[in-house]
Design goal:
The protein is mainly alpha-helical. It folds into three domains: 39 residues, no CATH class; 67 residues, no CATH class; 44 residues. The protein is 49% helix and 8% strand. It is elongated.
Length: 176
């Protein structure tokens, strides 16, 4: 397939955009894609493409927004590995598991923007989805029960207790 822009070179970049609910596909050669500005993440054209370089490019606009000099310019640092958010934005990966807690306030909006949510739901193997759903509901009900007992809302606690018993019966295979 030839480039839709120059009509000479082989189209190696295929861009799909959805505008007002309509899907539009553009097929361009590498040079036309770079000139058009449609491909702002130049990292995609590097031969050694990695998810870290993609994240770093994605966070690049945030690096400029961070203060560059002065005390605390890098913001808080992880007490375990010493990484700052600026370091994360440059490297495209966190240094350790504690970084998730230290940079939580900045990571949540980023995850929401990338994944559409800040909560991981995950996938369950075929045939186990219903049991996993029941377990999650059971855990939620138990947390709610603890909360209403602490608030001394005993009528609501009794209703939650009954629901918990139902779900536990379902897990044992005895529909209540």
């Amino acid at each position: 397939m030839l480039c839709e822009e120059c009509g000479k070179a082989q189209a190696t970049v295929h861009i799909e955009r959805i505008i007002n609910g309509r899907k539009m596909t553009t097929n361009l050669c590498r040079d036309c894609a770079q000139r058009s500005g449609l491909m702002t993440l130049g990292v995609l054209f590097q031969p050694s493409f990695s998810i870290n370089s993609l994240m770093s490019a994605f966070l690049g606009s945030q690096i400029e927004a961070l203060p560059s000099t002065g005390p605390g310019a890098d913001g808080p640092r992880c007490p375990v590995c010493g990484m700052s958010y600026r370091d994360f934005a440059r490297a495209g990966r966190l240094g350790c598991s504690r970084c998730y807690e230290v940079f939580e306030d900045r990571l949540e909006p980023l995850l929401r923007r990338i994944h559409g949510s800040d909560t991981h739901v995950g996938k369950a193997p075929a045939g186990t989805g219903e049991r996993a759903r029941i377990r999650r509901q059971l855990e939620t009900l138990k947390r709610q029960l603890s909360k209403v007992v602490a608030e001394e809302a005993y009528e609501e606690a009794a209703e939650l207790r009954d629901k918990i018993k139902e779900f536990e019966a379902k897990l044992r295979g005895n529909p209540a």
